[in-house]
Amino acid sequence: MRADEERRYAHLSPFELKDKLLALAADHARRGAQAMLDAGRGNPNWVATTPREALFVLGEFAVAESFAARSEPELGGMLRADGIAHRLADWLAGRAPSPGVTLLRDGVAHACDNLGCPPDALVHELADAVLGDHYPVPVRMLSHAGRIVHEYLRRELCDGAGGPYDLFAVEGAAAGIGYVLASLVENGLLARGDRIALGVPTFTPYLELPRLADYGFDVVEVAADEADGWQYPDAEIDRLADPAVKLFIVVNPGNPTAVAMRARTRERIARLVASRRPDLMILTDDVYATFSEGFRSLAAELPRNTIGLYSFSKYFGATGWRLGVVLLHRDNIVDAAIAALPAARRAAVDARYAPVALDPRGFRFIDRVAADSRQVALNHVAGLSTPQQAQMALFALYALTDRGARFRSAARAVVRRRLEALYAGMGLPVPQDALSTHYYATVDIAHWLEREHGPDFARFVQARYEPLDVVFRLAEEFATVLLPGGGFDAPQWSVRISLANLPDAVYPQIGANLRAVVEEYVAAWRAARGAPSQG
User: Fold this and answer.
1) How far, in Å, CA of 469 to CA of 160, rounded?
2) Sign of torsion over alpha carbons 458, 462, 465, 468
3) CA angle, 306 as apex, 383 and 433 as ends, to 5°?
4) Which of 23, 48, 416, 495 is found 20 to 30 A from 393 (Cα to Cα)?
5) Domains in the chain, ordered, with CATH?
6) Strand order across the 494-498 sheet
7) Nearest Cα to 85, choosing from 63, 57, 104?
8) Could you give the count of Cα atoms lying within 13 Å of 15 in the half-sphere of its Cβ?
9) Cα separation, 151 vs 459, whole angstroms
């Protein structure tokens, strides 16, 4: 029976369950000659073309420079730094105009004029990076790429202010999550059984990682209120006052809730930290920040207490590039806490980093995260690949231009348009929330049932069916894949719909398919009551 199968899958992460749903949907699509609609994973179906074209133009220039420096057939030479900025300008002037050529020319000028990058040093770093012929040096992030990304993050996360932040370029925010947690443990700031707080609903790895045997943390959930637009009630935030809570992890804007934390909640956290918890560490994942108007990160609100994570994946349509950043303010409580460790623990930590630091006690936490990412012994080969860093820098430069501002408006408009189409298909009013990114829609089916047909109907459905029944029906009957909200600690009878990864035209159909599942429940309810079916 389907209910038994649904119960068997109830414990799985939604991303693992997705494989089963995809198989069901694919089977239905084959039998019914129907296209499969996979709105499960949030991989955007747009691509930021201009910064990619700029990378390829830069690559052509770098190869030409290497040819010019070679001394043997088939062997390119190392790039010559002297005069390379002038040579790039001449080379670009000789090419046909294109968005990528313009971005490379104007981006270099912006970095030199506004960020203090020396022209030859900047162009040499970027050209050498795209060739990938050297290890990343510095290990955490290339110097000028770091300046550029720092400026981008200040604008997108911090209202154009704040800093200075130290950056570690990583293989997407997912890698950053693991690196930071591991380093907090290695440095004695977290230990098995320690209490951490977790803002929920949330991205499933944050639900799963702290509970792994590797960590075994005591997790306190700080729950957002669905009725209040998925914002955190004051009473939930006040749970952070517990001195046993060592770390607060939050995804902001949320996944699956898709809303940013309101200003007064940020301010309440800031007051609580100032008055009662100056030792509270915060880890904020701000991947969806660029879809939120007027966003301000906790990394800006509480710079000393906050470790930030950001990924370029969603906004720029670049999940395959694996581009992310860990950021930490230069003046931070994490370094202070390491300095204050008990003598025995401090000696053990010093010994760990002694092979890579002349002064282990002066080795900052952000550098420890980089070293720990390669288990310290391989620190000399740590770091994100240089071609990836070149692309990251060009994404950031693009976002700092007028053309990048137009891209921002277009990306935000796409997901907003799809939200409206989805709700039109469901026959429901579109939620209005100025803090929403519109990247996902979380639809509470139980509330929908109760709102349209009353509490008796909602209770009937929840008593007769498993919460996963909705996503199984959608896959089996409509070749439509959504993820169950319960897997994100959202309500059990909710679903998460990605508004990023499918064409606009299919979202009315996804909404209609959801409506059709609800109508199946209505028909079953009427049959159970002996009432005639309608329609």
Assistant:
1) 46
2) positive
3) 110
4) 416
5) 2-42+404-529 (3.90.1150.10), 49-134 (1.10.20.110), 143-399 (3.40.640.10)
6) 440-444, 494-498, 483-484
7) 104
8) 10
9) 52
Contacts 24+ apart (CB under 8 A), 149-154: 149/325, 149/392, 149/393, 149/396, 151/114, 151/115, 151/396, 151/400, 152/395, 152/396, 152/397, 152/399, 152/400, 153/308, 153/310, 153/325, 153/327
**How many residues are recorded in the chain?**
535
Cα 458 to Cα 464: distance, rounded to the nearest angstrom: 10
**Alpha helices per DSSP H over 373-454:** 386-399, 402-426, 445-453
Inter-CA distances, 112 with 79, 84, 169, Å: 20, 14, 21
Distance CA 224, CA 442 (A): 13
Q: Identity (one letter) of the amino acid at 37?
A: L
Helix (H, G, I), strand (E, B) or coil at 388: helix
Higher confidence at residue 385 or residue 531?
A: 385
Q: What is the pLDDT of residue 12?
A: 66
Global pTM value: 0.94
Collapse the DSSP code of 301 into the 3-class scheme (helix H, G, I; strand E, B; otherwise coil) and give the result: helix
* pLDDT, tens digit, 9 for 90 and up, residues 210-266: 999 889 999 999 999 999 999 999 999 999 999 999 999 999 999 999 999 999 999
CA gap 369, 5 in Å, rounded: 42
